[in-house]
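Propose amino acids for all 282 sites.
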């Protein structure tokens, strides 16, 4: 309720104060669009370029090939499976595996054929998403003038989507059914060939390179609740999982987290101004 004793001259003074406040806020917002947004975009580019380099770090040699790294598999299943994996960027260049067969205690030895490498699709996909995020960022160089907050948010949403997809590819193990494994070509990588009752799968889980070994038991044709493979019914008798930590995969996950935080912080700053000025589209 208005105070009847209040001077009418006070009303324009409040309005003028509001106008000054809005002018100050608009100046801050223009500075945000012109300066700080590009500063954040530069930080994001630097971080994601470093992440992209982690996926394919070249050797110091003149040929520029991606270096090979050897990792010893650690087992939690009574040393049923031992081995060394050789990682070269997004590809397994070699896998040297010793498997102790449960029934006979016989040790089977397998390794990749010399002419074979196995692409790790999770790493390849994650790298592709990082590169797509970099392309989005490079499309708005320092000379570009952002006009609205909505424009910044749209760019941040697109970048965050690619980063979330990249992270999800590394944090969600690639699951394949045994029939899919049988037809994937992975079983043809080894010398000597693996027996028909053994299957393997390689996958990424966070910063770890993992190997799963499945030992199968062939069942009678009329057995219920069994899977079918190559016209034979079978069940999985043993599963052995071993893994090794890949330090640069951990680095990339940290880079993804930092980048996503930077994007969200910029969106939060934009939202402060958009909530203050309902009359101006952001």
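Proposal:
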């Amino acid at each position: 309720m208005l105070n009847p004793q209040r001077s009418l001259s006070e009303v324009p003074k409040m309005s003028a104060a509001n106008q000054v406040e809005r002018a100050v806020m608009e100046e801050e917002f223009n500075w945000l669009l012109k300066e700080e947004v590009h500063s954040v975009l530069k930080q994001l580019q630097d971080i994601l370029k470093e992440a992209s380099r982690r996926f394919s770090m070249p050797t110091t040699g003149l040929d520029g090939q991606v270096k090979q790294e050897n990792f010893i598999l650690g087992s939690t299943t009574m040393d049923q499976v031992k081995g060394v994996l050789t990682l070269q960027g997004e590809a397994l260049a070699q896998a040297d595996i010793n498997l102790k067969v449960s029934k006979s205690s016989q040790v089977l030895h397998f390794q990749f054929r010399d002419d074979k490498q196995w692409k790790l699709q999770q790493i390849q996909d994650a790298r592709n998403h990082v590169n797509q995020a970099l392309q989005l960022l490079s499309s708005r160089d320092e000379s570009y003038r952002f006009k609205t907050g909505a424009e910044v948010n749209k760019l941040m949403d697109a970048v965050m989507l690619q980063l979330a997809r990249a992270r999800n590819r590394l944090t969600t193990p690639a699951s394949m059914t045994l029939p899919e494994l049988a037809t994937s070509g992975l079983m043809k990588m080894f010398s000597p060939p693996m027996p028909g009752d053994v299957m393997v799968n390689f996958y990424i889980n966070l910063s770890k390179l993992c190997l799963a070994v499945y030992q199968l038991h062939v069942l009678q044709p009329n057995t219920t609740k069994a899977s079918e493979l190559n016209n034979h019914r079978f069940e999985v008798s043993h599963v052995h999982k071993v893994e090794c930590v890949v330090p640069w995969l951990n680095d990339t996950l940290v880079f993804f987290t930092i980048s996503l935080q930077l994007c969200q912080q910029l969106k939060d700053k934009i939202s402060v101004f958009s909530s203050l000025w309902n009359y101006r589209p952001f």
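The longest strand covers residues 232-245. Residues 7-14, 277-282 have pLDDT under 50 and may be disordered.
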